[in-house]
Amino acid sequence: MIAQNAHYNEKMASVYEQMYPIGFDTDAALEFLATLAEPGARVLELGVGTGRIAVPMAERGYRVFGVDASESMIAKLAERDSKGEVTVELGDFTQPGLDMGGDFPLVTLVLNTFFVAVSREAQLNCLRNVRDQLAPGGRFVLEAFDPSPYHVLTKPDLSMRFLGENAIMLDTLMVDRSQQLMVATHTILDGGAPQTTQHVLRYAFPQEIDLLAELAGLRLVERTAGWRKEPFTALSPRHVSVFERAE
Ligand SMILES: C[S@@+](CC[C@H](N)C(=O)[O-])C[C@H]1O[C@@H](n2cnc3c(N)ncnc32)[C@H](O)[C@@H]1O
To answer: How many CB atoms lie within 10 A of CB 63?
Structure first.
């Protein structure tokens, strides 16, 4: 299996902002997060990436800390964060013992990033790290897709994304439901030689996430279908779930 972070290489980092352009649900996410912590509060984002959420949060007065396993993504964040307001560390949130200072009133893990932990043990490690970094009474926000439509795929799913006037991305998804694994392949076509990267996700159903969270000492507080607090139903393609420490 391919090393999970090889995917977020320089090329992917260079097109990441076109994949999720400004305005892509980000404003709604910022509004949602603002209901959970006041400006001035310390916020930790796991898999902070190019700072799509972290940089505007810092601009709104939060003291933002981020961890990411990709040097290329961190370099892009630094370009966006010209005032150096976000404190970023290179690290792996699936390894036990992540220490970003602890006592955070808000910890976030958005855009399906939980699923980069490709085993149940790695997902549990991640949630234990969250639990240890969270302040009593603090909130942990996890945004992920509901895997139900993917879990039944029996052949590769192909789709295409617009990256800009002269660039598209071809995405293929293959699923091994016996292991809840999904292999996503992204090919960038921008006039140069096509470049393909692949990454593996271990998807988990919301109820399994709740159980893993419970094992890690967290408790579900609220689940909605998105950042605008749409009700979560059997047909919701994704969820935004809020947890707290269980004690
Ligand atoms: C889908 S991107 C999300 C980025 C950002 N949170 C956002 O919302 O735009 C996932 C990020 O997680 C990082 N990542 C993947 N595996 C990781 C790990 N084990 N530990 C830390 N970061 C990881 C990737 O490098 C990438 O920047």
So the answer is: 16
Q: What are the residue ranges spanned by the domains of the chain?
A: 10-145+204-245, 149-200
Q: Half-sphere exposure of residue 173, counting CA atoms within 13 Å on the CB side?
A: 19
Sequence-separated (6 or more) residues with CB below 8 Å from residue 235 = none
Cα–Cα distance, 42 to 107 (Å, whole number): 9
Positive or negative, the CA dihedral 80, 82, 86, 89 is positive
Rounded distance from Cα 200 to ligand 1 centre (Å):
13
241 lines ligand 1 (CB under 6 A): no
Q: State residue 197's pLDDT score.
A: 87
- Expressed in angstroms and rounded, the spacing between residue 113 Cα and the centre of ligand 1 is 6
Give the rounded distance of the alpha carbon of 69 from its chain centre: 12
CATH architecture of 149-200: Single Sheet (2.20)
d(CA 224, CA 65): 25
Q: Is 140 exposed, middle or buried, given 0-12, 13-18 or 19+ CB atoms closer than 10 A?
A: buried
Report the DSSP pairing between strands 238-245 and 134-145.
antiparallel
What the block records as the tokens of 240 is: 């935004």
In whole angstroms, what is the distance from residue 103 CA to residue 114 CA?
21
Q: State whether the beta carbon of 116 lies less than 6 angstroms from ligand 1.
A: yes
Q: Is 76 exposed, middle or buried (0-12, 13-18, 19+ CB in 10 A)?
A: buried
Residues 95-111 have pLDDT tens digits of: 999 999 999 999 999 99
Which atom of ligand 1 is nearest to 67's Cα? 21
- The CATH homologous superfamily for domain 10-145+204-245 is Vaccinia Virus protein VP39 (3.40.50.150)
Reported as a pLDDT band with limits 50, 70 and 90, residue 22 is low
